[in-house]
From TrEMBL:
InterPro entries: AAA+_ATPase, ABC_transporter-like_ATP-bd, P-loop_NTPase. The keyword Translocase does not apply. Residues 5-230 form the ABC transporter domain. This is ABC transporter ATP-binding protein. GO terms for molecular function: ATP binding; ATP hydrolysis activity. Keywords: ATP-binding, Nucleotide-binding. It comes from Actinotalea soli. It holds the Pfam family ABC_tran. SUPFAM superfamilies: P-loop containing nucleoside triphosphate hydrolases (SSF52540).
Length: 292
């Protein structure tokens, strides 16, 4: 019960604003995908198209092999949770859960009730009367308990405090292991979600900057530290994302996967080589004018 996604040359325009321009990507079924990128890079727009909330201006989107637009089968298997969407804010939460239990084929009411307890949500209350973080937590409950074939969480953590966010991540992972499905997490809190991700898509200015399996990405990028001239000689010809100097010591972040020979070369030159975490990689790759 997992939907895969194929996006080909997707363009979405809002009047004269081009939110996505010829974006192409594939999301394999049954995996947790991270959708990352700076503000305005097009994440919400992409998720809205996948959930058939919005129509492409051009290009093709296939969810489980079919165009999701006005497609009852695909729409029934897709759940988009975002701050403003998918939960009735002026209806008591119990009524919303009752409705979802009837309307969504895989909805797990026991899980929903357990998560309501975890997030200390009173089912008699309406989301409009809740704090922002509690409203987000209810979105998380709905998204998890719906167990849709394609579950899209658009910055679901907004307003949630750290313990609630971690409770959400733990619940997601636990339920995903039991019930694998396709999950897309759009987030700016990259450090927090990194451990959950099997595949990462980075959007930048409406295009796909990178789409890679998390383990491949984990080996991409290196931090080279040592005496300035030796570092500069080593990184010459490689793509330098950032160069920092502290007295005679230089630390250069390069966008390169260093093989054993390159690491031995660095070691022989008296340099230290360390990994680059995903957050830093995203920051450097999407910086306005990356250092070369
Ligand atoms: N309803 C709209 N009308 C006009 N322009 C819009 C609309 N929604 C989004 N945009 C524009 O489309 C672009 C992409 O926006 P989108 O919300 O998809 O980005 P995002 O990556 O989700 O951003 P954030 O991280 O800030 O949530 C931005 O330039 C934004 O200003």
């Amino acid at each position: 019960m997992s939907f895969g996604v194929e996006v080909q040359d997707l363009t979405v325009e809002y009047g004269r604003t081009v939110a996505l321009e010829r974006a192409s990507l594939t999301l394999a079924p049954g995996a947790i995908h991270g959708l990352l990128g700076r503000n305005g890079s097009g994440k919400t727009t992409l998720l809205s198209v996948l959930a058939a909330f919005r129509r492409p201006s051009a290009g093709r989107v296939l969810v489980d092999g079919e165009d999701p637009w006005e497609n009852p089968r695909v729409m029934a298997g897709t759940c988009l949770v975002r701050e403003s969407g998918d939960v009735e804010v002026d209806t008591g939460m119990k009524d919303t859960l009752d409705y979802l239990e009837r309307a969504r084929p895989h909805f797990d009411r026991d899980l929903a009730d357990r998560l309501m307890d975890t997030f200390e949500l009173d089912p008699r209350r309406k989301p409009t009367k809740l704090s922002r973080g509690k409203r987000s937590a209810f979105g998380a409950v709905v998204g998890l308990a719906t167990r849709a074939e394609l579950t899209l969480f658009d910055e679901v953590y907004l307003g949630m405090d750290a313990p609630s966010r971690h409770a959400f991540y733990d619940a997601l992972l636990e339920d995903y292991v039991e019930h694998p499905r396709t999950i897309v997490l759009s987030s700016h809190l990259i450090e927090e979600i990194e451990r959950l991700l099997e595949h990462v898509v980075i959007l930048d200015r409406g295009g796909v900057l990178l789409a890679e399996d998390a383990d491949v990405l984990g080996a991409r990028g290196a931090r080279v530290t040592g005496p300035g001239p030796a570092v500069d000689a080593f990184v010459a010809g490689r793509r330098v994302l950032r160069r920092e100097q502290l007295g005679p010591t230089v630390q250069a972040t390069v966008d390169a996967t260093l093989d054993d020979a390159a690491r031995a070369e660095a070691h022989a030159a008296g340099l230290e080589v360390g990994p680059v975490d995903l957050q830093s990689l995203v920051v450097h790759l999407t910086a306005k004018e990356p250092a070369r």
